[in-house]
Amino acid sequence: AIWNLGSINADMVYAVPHLPGPGETLAATELSQFLGGKGANMSVAAARAGAHVCHIGAVGADGRWAVDRLTEYGVDTRQIAEVSAPTGHAIIAVEASGENQILLFAGANHAITTDQLGQAMSQAGAGDILVLQNETNAQVEAVKMGRELGLKVCYAAAPFDADAVQAVLPYLDFLILNEVEAAQLQEATGMAPQDLPVAQVIVTFGADGARYFDTNTGENQVFPAFKVKAVDTTGAGDTFTGYVLAGMDRGLPMPQAISQAMRAAAIMVTRHGTADVIPDLKDVQDAIL
Ligand code: ADP
User: Fold this and answer.
1) Residue 192 and residue 214 in contact, taking contact as beta carbons nearer than 8 Å
2) What value, to the nearest 5°, has the Cα angle with vertex 244 and ends 196 and 50?
3) Which of 72, 190, 242, 252 is most buried, most CB within 10 Å of its CB?
4) How do strand 9-15 and strand 30-36 relate by DSSP bridges?
5) pLDDT tens sequence across 55-103
6) Upstream peptide bond of 17 is cis (omega within 30 degrees of 0)
7) For the chain, first and last CA: distance in Å?
8) DSSP secondary-structure letter at 37?
9) Rounded distance between C-alpha atoms, residue 7 and residue 139, angstroms
10) Is 270 in the pocket of ligand 1 (CB under 6 A)?
């Protein structure tokens, strides 16, 4: 099973005639609300890939719809707490050209308690996977618990913060970063991916694919991406990570898990939207790429 300490956001997308400037009051012409947050996206991706995913997180009373949506997509939501803080959200203004402006509020995503975490993790078994990203609190507590319980501890270093990733680094078995994050981590630590004290590292390069490092053997392997017509790359990285984790959880060798994740992410970039449009395993296997 996969345990995901992850964010749950309401993505509120407002169509605007132009991006607002300082002091400006602007009427939006349209509002669409979607399920978002890197954590939620990864849970949906791993569940769609066939894994049992238990999401550990928090929402406010205004976020029950998001929990229902996760349940609908096959995620185990029993460890999501309802707290007094508002649900995490992103206010996204988009002008006709596609240019956007995003305001993020972590809200309930930063209200996860150690008690909640301990209670959830007490149900995990050795060999299970724990994954987290940098959109919740309690990250260090979680990786320490994961280590103690014999879980495989995985971290997606996004949104990138050098202090946050360095705080969890000693407890990780697996680290996934995009190219920009990898450069930022190297800048902060002076260590290239293959030198990190983490057994397995993946660096993704968007349309250029990904590189997998086995830091014990020093080997690395390049995986070219599938050539597709990209229309919306949001959620590609989260889908990739969710699929890699689901593959690992199923016992697939890493190269196979990565190939499958590559297919899923390639399909994802041909679709508009995020959590709501993540392909399932059958779509991924049947797709002609
Ligand atoms: P992030 O979204 O975290 O920045 P990337 O942009 O590196 O991550 O994308 C993650 C993975 O998604 C890539 O390794 C690749 O497999 C797939 N991907 C992203 N963009 C494209 C694209 N334009 N064409 C095909 N695959 C893509």
Assistant:
1) no
2) 150
3) 242
4) antiparallel
5) 999 999 999 999 999 999 999 999 999 999 999 999 999 999 989 999 9
6) no
7) 29
8) -
9) 12
10) no
Q: How far is the CA of 133 from the centre of ligand 1 (A)?
A: 17
Name all domains of the chain by residue range, CATH numbers in brackets: 2-286 (3.40.1190.20)
- For ligand 1, whether the C-beta of 207 sits within 6 Å is yes
Say yes or no: CB of residue 228 within 6 Å of ligand 1: yes
Strand partners, 15: 30, 94
Residue 151: alpha-carbon gap to chain centroid: 18
Q: Whose CA is nearest to atom 9 of ligand 1?
A: 206
Q: pLDDT of 204-247, one tens digit each?
A: 999 999 999 999 998 999 999 999 999 999 999 999 999 999 99
Residues in the chain: 289
Residue 136 backbone dihedrals phi, psi, to 5 degrees: -130, 170
Give the whole-angstrom CA distance, residue 220 versus residue 125: 30
Distance 92 CA to ligand 1 centre (A): 22
User: 82: number of CA atoms within 13 Å, CB side?
Assistant: 8
